[in-house]
Every structure is written in C-alpha cells, then in structure tokens.
RNA sequence: GGGCGAUUAGCUCAGUUGGUUAGAGCGCUACGUUGACAUCGUAGAGGUCACAGAUUCGAAUUCUGUAUCGCCCA
C-alpha cells in the first residue's frame, strides 16, 4: 500500500543517489545533439546560501531539466567564487576575534592557508545545499575561481591585455579600507548618514593688500585633512553663480504647488540676503586669487595658493573651500584642473604619516581632535555646527572608507566596453526583462577604466614584476634584457615614465604560471607586485575558463557560447558586462545568448535578506520542514517579471511548531517568547549559556506551506490512479471513440503542454507554476479523477479509463518534473511498476522521470467545442452545489435534480448523468427541454448557456434560507440590470462603441431580465407556500 | 540629483492588445471525514485597484503629475 503522504525526508536522499549513480546530470560532448549550457553564477565561499541563491539555482535547474528532457545535451556547470575581499575579511575578523592576531602577525602564506580551509568548509556546505535542493549540476565538472584551470585563464588574459597595452599603472584616488588595508571598488562602498560636525577654520592671508581680509574662512567635516591641503578655492564668478541659483529657484517656484511655494520663496530670500552680505567679499577674494595671493596653512606652516574654481559654492558655508586633492574625490578633480600638488597624509593603516610630522602616528580620530585643539589654541577656530554627514562605509569591514592616493593597475575600458555595448545593442546578447538593458548600456557607456589591483593576499596574484630607474636608458636596457628571455608570447616588458617623480618604471609580465623565467626576472632586480586581482577579473572569465580555455578543449568548442545566464540584477554591471567583454576579447564570441534577470527576494519588511540582519532563510531549514519540491515550487512561483518579491519570514517554534512572524524587533533578539505556547526559544543571536539553554528555532516562511500541500495533492491523485491500475493493460488510445471527459482531458493537456513549453523558453516561471497548479488541482483532480471513479467501477469503461488516466498522469509528471523533481520521480517509479508501457501509442517509458522525453503538445487534441461543453457541465455542477450549500443539505444526502436545457445540451449531459453523484451528490431525474420545476423547488438559471437547474427540496426545504438566497440573488440582478440599462441608454456608448460590444451588452441585459423575472416568481411562490403552511 | 521598479482583498501576489459582476493562495466564516488527499472537500464574507488630473462611449490597464516604499547610479 502506498503511504498517503509523500515523505520527502526518507524519499529525497535515495532518489538523488539513483540519479547520481546513473549519471543523469552528467553532460558529454555529443556532436549529434544540440548543446544547452548554463554556467552557475558561482556563489561566494564567504558564507552559506540563503533563499536568494535558492531562487537563482531553482530557476536554473528548471531550465536545465526541461532542456535535458527536450533532448538537448544539457550542461549545468557548477562552481564557487573565492570572493577576495569578502572571504579574506571574514577570516581576518575571526583571527582577530578568536586569537587576537592580524594577518601581519601570521604572514601571507599562513593566512592564505587558513582561507583555503575556510573555503573547503563552505564550499562543502554550499554544494550540500545545492544538492539537497535537487540541483542537477554536472558535479564532475565542479570548478573554483582560484583553481589551476581558472588561474591559467586569468594569467593568459592578463598577459594578453598587457601585451595589447590595455593594462597600465596609475595613481588614483581609491576607496581605502584602513582596516583591511586595501582599495575597494565603488560598488563595495555604502554611504550612510551619520551625525557629525561642521568645523569653521580661518587661514591667514600672507601679506594682504590694504582693504583685503587678513584671514579666509573655510569649513570642513573632516578637520584632520587640512594637513594635506594644497589650496583654498573661491568661485571664479560669484555674482553669476548667485544669479544662476536665483534663476533656478524662480523656475521651481513658477511650477510649484502652493505648499512648496512658500518654502522655496524663503530659500530665495535667504540666497538674496546672502548675496547682499557676501558678494563683495567673494569678489575681492576672487581678485586676490587672480593676483596670486597665498595663504599660510596653519599647523603645518605651508604656503598654499588661493585659486579660482567652480567647485567652491558661493551659496554654501563661507563660500570658500579647502582643497585636499589626495583625500577627497572632488578636491582631486580640482587638483587635476589647477595642477596642485597632491599630498598624501595617511599611512595604509589610517594613521597620519610623515607629511605632518607633528601628528605622525595618530589615528584619524586622534588627529582630528588634536588639529581642532591646536587651531583653537592658535585662535583660528570658528564655529562648530552639528550636521548630518554622508560617510562612506566599506561593505566588507564596515569601517569608514578613506579616499587615498595609491598606485593601482587599471584595465583600459574604451574598446572593451564598446564591444560589450555592441553585443547587447545588436541583439547578440538578450537581456530579459529588457528594461535592464538601459542600466547595462549606461554603465558601460561611461567607459571608466577598471582598477583591478586589490591589496589582498587571497586571490590571483598580479603577474607583473617591476623596478624603478632614474634614467630612461637604464630602464630600456632592463626591458631589452627581459624581452630576450623568452618568446613574445611568453614575456612582455614595458617602460612607463612617471611624470611626477621623473623616474622610469619597468614592468615585466610573464605568461605562464610558475614560469621558469621568474627567477631570471628577479635576478634583474625586479620585484613581483604583491597585490592580487579584483575577484571580478576571474569571474569575468567564468563561462570560458570553466570549459578549459585557454586550452582549445572539445568542451569549449561544443558548449561555448553558453545558452543562458540566470542571475540577479545587482551584478549586471559588475559581472555580466565584464563577462561579455572578456568573452569577446578572449574568444571573439559572446559568452551567452540570453541573460535572464530574476527578482530579488525581500523579507516581509521589504528588506533584502541577509544573514547579518537575521532575516536570511537557509534553504535547508525550508527543505527540512516542507521538502525540496515545496521549496522549489514556492520559489518558482515568486519568479514573476517584477524586480522585488516579498517573502515574510517566521521563526518556527521548536516547542509547538507554530510559526512566529519575524519583526524588526525580534529578529535581533537572542531569545523569543512563543506567543502560542508561551515557551521560549533561542535564535541565531543566542550568546550566553542562558540563551542557549532554550532550543533554537529554525527560520522559515509559511509561503512554502501552499506548495507542500500541492505536493501532497499530486501525490494523492497519483495514489488514486495507482490504486486503480492493478489490472492495467496498455492499449492504444483512440481519440475518436472517447467520451467527452477524456477528450476534454486530452484537449486540456495539449493546451497546458504548449503553454508550459513556451513558458520555459520565455522564462515565465511563475506563470508555469500557476498553470500547472491550476490544471493539476482544479481540472485533473477535481474533475477528471472524480469522474473516473464511477467509470472505473464500470467493467465496460474501466480499461479505457485506465489508459487515459495513466497517460494524463504521465504527462503531468513530465511537465512538473523540472519544478518538482523528487515527488514526480517517486511517482514515476510507482507508475512504472504498474504501467511501464503507456501513452497514446503505448511504449516503454524511461527508467527515470528525469531522463524522460518532454511531452509534445498534440494540437489536434485541442477542441474548443469539447472544452465549451465541458465547462457547461462544470457550471451545472456548480449550480447544484450552490443550492445545496444555501440549503445546508447534508453531504450524505442525495438530491433529485431536474435540468431544463436544449436538445444539444441534453445529448451532451445525458451520458454524464452518473457523474452528478460523486461531484454534487445529486441524481438527475429529468433532463431536456421538457424538464419541469419540482413542487418544492430551488431553481438556479444559467442564462448564458440557456439552462435552468432545479433541485427538489421536498425533503430539505428551509424556506427562510431559500428566501434569503433568492433575495440576495435578486438584489445582485437588479444592480446589474441598472448598470446595463444606464450604459445602453447612453447615446455615446451605443453610437461609438463597436457593434459587437453593444450587442453583447444587449444580450446580457435581456438574459438578466429573464432571470430577474424568474427569481421574482420563485420568491412569490415560496412566500405563498410559507404563508399557506 | 538621475535611473529602474512597486503601490490591487487582512497577508503574499496574478491581471494578456482598454470592454459583462477585478482573480488565486494563505488567513477568516459556515457545513462536512465510510478508501486518493483534513497537508482535504463544498459554499461564503472580504476590494474607492495609492492619490489627483487627462484621453476615451468605456481605464486596475494608456498619458501627466503627486505621495509612499525598495533598489541602482552620482
């Protein structure tokens, strides 16, 4: 006997093992088949996966399983990403917390060793998560962005770009993370608003002319940066600047609502007052700047110029701004424009360096205090205002980012970016949904050079050896010596002049990993760059490095370009764009044809899921509770075309198993009181032993409950089918001879198969899930299976019913398999035991659902008339049920029913009379044009199909209930009739709307009127009857 | 400041090119358990489609503006 529940806890493991043993997910080069390839967006080994990854990977698996069934050689290539900064940061933080050591204490090799063991641990966990979700990756091809094959690809690419002159070294202002001591990209910086202060300083003017001020006032939120000031700027044309602001404000006022107007007018007045008060002074300063006046920078006693630059805003502060080119991005621009010196005042660890000897060694915070105190002592400190300041924070270390001038390697993006833009504009790469193309093109269009150095130890080390020389001839000699060491494809050397120092740098790039040339290059006095490459550099190569490039493997020839990339929108620029340009550079071909961008999962409060917030849900917790199929089905339903979806998150109380909504408050609490059973449970924040004494609650979402129920429904429908197949004999299905309900099922299967097949190609995951859910539940279970019950009991119909039923279930299993692989596989096995040969022309099916062929949509089975007729039947059933419910007739009672209809409907319904029993607890006693109401009658008219359904209430009558029902019905009818009448009496509607629409309205109005009269008659009769009793 | 998106039932979401009474799941109410399934069945209640204009005979749907929320970029 088959159990009445699908027990995923015992079933899923063995199923996965069988697939694995049979090599179902392994793909090989098969020239006679068309390839379909997906490379996984490699998850970071920094941490475990949450439901965002769950969604991403479920969708990929749906695609790959469907394509595999469709006969493609389907390869889903798995792997993980080393995630340079993130992973090193995690390991370093642990090192500090647990052993109070820094990376410098243990050294490069030991740190990298520790990160490798971290990687091993998390890679294992991630792969385990994917496997439990049922992901049918080709595990034999598992890759890691830092493995040898990927390293070879990185090396080959870097060398190629270097040789093409697309890699150069430059000083740039970078986002410096003083904790991790590395530059981070803009994308790894998050701006937060903090409370801070706005300090006003006075810088003395050197030798002011008569009438000129003795001091210039500036203001800053970061006082310590004044140590690196190299100028003070004033606007070159303050009066014009004021005029421009006034013009803009007036423009806004003209368009503003009354409410905003007064506020804007106040702003305008303020600007005017300011102009009156300050314009003369600012113009004088402008003249002083033109005249070359200098200021004395206090504390460091450096002469700095007063310059005219538009960065100074007359409307803000004193109208003058200090310029610190080495520590502020805007000031850097001013420095470039005005050729100012750039003085770096920071050591890599964020302490003040020897550029300001009096402050050397102080941290930024200490220096800030000291500078303010010293300026006050010197009488140069003005007001200190409170102010909200925007502060850049490192995503990785959560410490403040310092703009910092450093040597970095860059990839010149001009040509590369253009090629990636062209690939999308020309349609070689399709981004779906299309709206994401804009962001991609805009970002690439800026063609900003890509800084690829990271001052880290975890990553691909930059393969450049360098040295600096005073004389160009000397540098050229070294270049010549290095170039002679190997062929031009092995070694490349360049000289780069440094304008600032007047020195000459020699850069030598080596092509091979562990090249024998390394010691020779080092013997020339060159040193290898200590930095590693940005992680995205190696992930940019992922679609081809994983297939063996730079080797010309047969896998590469066969599986590349890949078919589809499935990812989330936050890395369209960081990753997708870079894969496109690297694929084009290295292979001359785009890496994939379709980029499908799926939604981002938010929690119930609309916030992104993350482990650090506590709202991250581990797919394993959901699988433990609801099963892998429920997880997958639930996630697939979320994948609509929108960009965010909300998934409320709950704790599952370990005592009573009730779900407790997660709120912003309780999600960071170490222990929570269960509101249902009043017991306590702990959370991921539990720290003390006291907390840990309470059992820990899993974090899940009830959204998966529906899906779990669906799995159960499917299981039980299959169980019914299986229980009735003991004497099954395969026989061809002859459509012409089948009764209505069978032909209806085949017609619906044809449509559903077509829709689902199209849905896969159009990435309509949610719609597919809905179509299959509705079909399986509302049609296959609620109607087909119910109708099959009496037929299976009838010996003359049993065999044909078994064949169609087995075929229907078979098709449903195949269509559902990509979304719910485990339960469908399990049923498939049972079905195979009883009906190993099945189908329209019975044939032996494959051993696994996973390897079964995808159903074909039989267009010839689609029959509109049949579907319309069947829906008439469904309407009649619905009418009987409504009457029964309104009369509170007990389900075990069978009610006599009379159906007044035309001859055609009579012919249709006559053979289906016996199904009224199981579907509506009714017995049809009269059917056709002559069917009459009963003496004690409950009627329901179905005017759209010209039928009336009557139920004999002789034994059941509840006059009050019936009157209530009829009067409610009458009310609805009257309302609808009024609406229609007013519509049709509107001359505009009648004359302007298309005639068929008007005609339809007229018809439906007359139907409603007929119905109203009949209901009124029923009410009167009933009232009479009630009063006569 | 710019871009993208969202706003529909208590909650989470559908809603095709404008056209009957705007749908589903969960939750809620009532009734119901004799072999597919209570992880179920049947019926029901529940909506000013964020707001304001415009276009149209007709707008959840098209356009403009506003508000709120989220994300990305500066």
Q: What can you see in these coordinates?
A:
It is a single chain. The chain is of the alpha+beta class and 1029 residues long. The chain has 5 domains: 32-166 and 412-462 and 531-592, 3-Layer(aba) Sandwich (Rossmann fold), CATH 3.40.50.620; 186-403, Alpha-Beta Complex (Isoleucyl-tRNA Synthetase, domain 2); 463-528; 705-837, Isoleucyl-tRNA Synthetase, Domain 1 (Orthogonal Bundle); 868-1028, no CATH class. Helices cover 46% and strands 19% of the residues. It has 32 helices and 37 strands. A hairpin with a 6-residue loop joins strand 29 (671-673) and strand 30. Helix 2 crosses helix 20, helix 11 crosses helix 18 and helix 22 (703-723) runs parallel beside helix 26. It is globular and about 115 Å long. It binds one RNA strand of 74 nucleotides through helix 12, strand 26, helix 22, helix 24 and helix 27.
Record the SSE blueprint.
Elements: H1 8-21, E1 35-39, H2 51-69, E2 73-77, E3 79-80, H3 84-99, H4 103-106, H5 108-133, E4 143-144, H6 148-163, E5 167-177, E6 182-184, E7 189-204, E8 215-220, E9 231-234, H7 238-255, H8 258-290, E10 294-297, E11 302-308, E12 320-323, H9 329-338, H10 364-377, E13 381-394, E14 401-411, H11 414-425, E15 430-432, H12 436-445, E16 450-451, E17 453-454, E18 464-469, H13 472-483, E19 491-497, E20 504-510, H14 517-523, E21 527-528, E22 532-533, H15 535-539, H16 542-545, H17 554-559, E23 562-568, H18 572-587, E24 592-598, E25 600-603, H19 619-626, H20 628-638, E26 644-647, E27 650-652, E28 659-661, E29 671-673, E30 680-682, H21 689-692, E31 698-700, H22 703-723, H23 740-761, H24 765-792, H25 795-816, H26 821-834, E32 837-838, E33 843-844, H27 864-886, E34 895-900, H28 903-909, H29 916-920, E35 922-928, E36 937-942, E37 947-952, H30 959-984, H31 987-992, H32 995-1028
Helix pairs in contact: 1-26, 2-20, 3-5, 7-8, 11-12, 11-18, 19-20, 20-22, 20-24, 22-24, 22-26, 23-24, 23-25, 23-27, 24-25, 25-26, 30-32
The chain binds one RNA strand of 74 nucleotides through α12, β26, α22, α24 and α27.
């Amino acid at each position: 006997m088959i159990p009445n529940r699908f027990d995923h806890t015992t079933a899923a493991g063995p199923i996965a093992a069988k697939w694995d043993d049979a090599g179902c997910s392994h793909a090989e080069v098969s020239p006679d088949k068309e390839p379909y390839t997906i490379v996984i967006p490699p998850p970071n080994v920094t941490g475990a996966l949450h439901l965002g990854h769950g969604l991403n990977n479920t969708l990929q698996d749906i695609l790959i399983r469907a394509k595999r069934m469709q006969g493609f050689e389907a390869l889903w290539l798995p792997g993980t990403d080393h995630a340079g900064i993130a992973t090193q940061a995690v390991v370093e933080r642990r090192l500090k917390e647990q052993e109070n050591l820094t990376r410098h204490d243990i050294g490069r090799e030991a740190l990298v060793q520790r990160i490798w063991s971290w990687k091993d641990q998390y890679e294992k966990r991630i792969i385990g998560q994917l496997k439990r979700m049922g992901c049918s990756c080709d595990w034999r091809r598992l890759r890691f962005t830092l493995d040898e094959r990927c390293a070879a690809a990185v090396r080959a690419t870097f060398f190629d770009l270097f040789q093409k002159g697309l890699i150069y070294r430059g000083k740039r202002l970078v986002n410096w993370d003083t904790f991790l001591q590395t530059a981070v990209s803009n994308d790894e910086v998050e701006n937060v608003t903090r409370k801070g202060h706005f300090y006003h300083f006075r810088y003395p003017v050197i030798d002011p002319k008569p009438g000129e001020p003795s001091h210039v006032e500036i203001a800053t939120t970061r006082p310590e940066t004044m140590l690196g000031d190299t100028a003070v700027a004033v606007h070159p044309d303050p009066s014009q600047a004021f005029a421009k602001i006034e013009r803009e404000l007036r423009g806004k006022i003209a368009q503003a609502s009354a409410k905003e107007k007064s506020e804007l007018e106040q702003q305008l007045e303020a600007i005017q007052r300011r102009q009156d008060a300050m314009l003369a002074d600012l113009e004088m300063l402008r003249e002083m700047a033109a005249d070359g006046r200098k200021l004395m920078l206090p504390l460091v006693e450096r002469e700095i110029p007063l310059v005219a630059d538009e960065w100074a805003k007359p409307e803000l502060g004193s109208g003058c701004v200090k310029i610190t080119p080495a520590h502020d991005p805007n000031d850097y621009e001013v420095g470039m424009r005005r050729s100012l010196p750039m003085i770096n005042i920071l050591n890599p660890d964020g302490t003040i360096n020897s550029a300001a000897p009096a402050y050397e060694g102080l941290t930024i915070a200490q220096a800030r205090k000291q500078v303010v105190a010293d300026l006050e002592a010197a009488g140069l400190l003005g007001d200190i205002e409170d102010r909200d300041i925007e502060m850049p924070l490192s995503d990785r270390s959560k410490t403040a980012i310092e703009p910092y001038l450093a040597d970095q390697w860059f990839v010149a993006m001009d040509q590369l970016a253009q090629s990636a833009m062209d690939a999308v504009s020309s349609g070689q790469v399709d981004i779906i949904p299309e709206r994401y193309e804009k962001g991609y093109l805009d970002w690439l269009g800026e063609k900003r050079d890509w800084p690829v150095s990271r001052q880290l130890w975890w990553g691909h080390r930059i393969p450049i050896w360098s040295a600096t020389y005073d004389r160009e001839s000397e540098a050229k000699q070294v270049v010549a010596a290095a170039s002679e060491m190997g062929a031009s494809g092995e070694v490349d050397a360049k000289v780069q002049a440094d304008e600032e120092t007047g020195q000459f740098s020699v850069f030598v790039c080596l092509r091979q990993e562990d090249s024998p040339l390394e010691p020779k290059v080092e013997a020339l006095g060159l040193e290898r760059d200590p930095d590693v490459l940005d992680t995205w550099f190696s992930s940019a190569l992922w679609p081809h490095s994983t297939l063996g490039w730079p080797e010309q493997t047969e896998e590469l020839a066969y599986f590349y370009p890949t078919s589809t990339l499935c990812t989330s929108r936050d890395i369209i620029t960081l990753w997708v764009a870079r894969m496109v340009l690297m694929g084009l550079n290295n292979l001359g071909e785009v890496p994939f044809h379709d980029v499908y961008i799926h939604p981002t999962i938010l929690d119930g409060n609309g916030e992104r899921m993350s482990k650090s917030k506590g709202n991250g849900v581990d797919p394993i917790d959901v699988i433990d509770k609801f099963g892998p199929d429920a997880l997958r089905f639930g996630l697939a339903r979320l994948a609509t075309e929108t960009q965010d979806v909300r998934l409320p998150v709950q704790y599952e109380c370990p005592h009573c198993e009730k779900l407790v909504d997660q709120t912003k408050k309780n999600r960071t609490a170490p222990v929570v009181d269960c509101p249902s059973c009043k017991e306590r449970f702990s959370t991921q924040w539990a720290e003390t032993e006291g907390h840990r004494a309470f059992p820990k609650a899993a974090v899940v979402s009830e959204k998966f409950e529906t899906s779990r129920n669906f799995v159960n429904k499917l299981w039980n429908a299959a169980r019914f089918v299986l229980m009735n197949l003991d004497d099954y004999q395969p026989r061809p299905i002859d459509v012409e001879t089948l009764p209505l309900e069978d032909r209806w099922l085949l017609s619906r299967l044809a449509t559903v198969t077509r829709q689902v097949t199209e849905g896969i190609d159009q990435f309509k995951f949610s719609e597919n899930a809905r179509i299959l859910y509705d079909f399986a539940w509302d049609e296959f279970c609620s109607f087909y299976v119910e109708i099959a019950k009496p037929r299976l009991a009838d010996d003359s119909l049993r065999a044909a019913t078994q064949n169609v039923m087995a075929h229907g279930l078979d098709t449903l299993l195949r269509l559902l398999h990509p979304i719910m692989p485990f339960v469908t596989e399990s049923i498939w096995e049972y079905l195979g035991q009883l009906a190993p040969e099945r189908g329209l022309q019975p044939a032996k099916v494959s051993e696994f659902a996973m390897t079964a062929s995808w159903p074909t949509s039989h267009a010839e089975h689609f029959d509109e008339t049949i579907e319309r007729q069947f829906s008439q039947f469904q309407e009649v059933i619905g009418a009987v049920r409504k009457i029964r419910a309104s009369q509170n007739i007990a389900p075990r009672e069978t009610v006599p029913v009379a159906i007044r209809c035309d001859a055609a409907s009579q012919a249709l319904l006559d053979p289906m009379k016996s199904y009224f029993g199981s579907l509506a607890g009714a017995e049809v006693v009269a059917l056709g044009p002559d069917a009459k109401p009963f003496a004690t009658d409950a009627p329901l008219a179905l005017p759209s199909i010209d039928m009336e359904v009557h139920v004999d209430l002789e034994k059941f009558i509840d006059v009050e209930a019936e009157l209530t029902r009829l009067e409610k019905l009458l009310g609805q009818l009257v309302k609808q009739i009024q609406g229609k009448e007013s519509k049709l009496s509107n001359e505009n509607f009648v004359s302007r709307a298309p005639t068929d629409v008007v005609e339809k309205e007229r018809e439906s109005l007359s139907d409603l009127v007929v119905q109203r009269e009949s209901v009124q008659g029923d009410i009167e009769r009933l009232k009479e009857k009630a009063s006569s009793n």
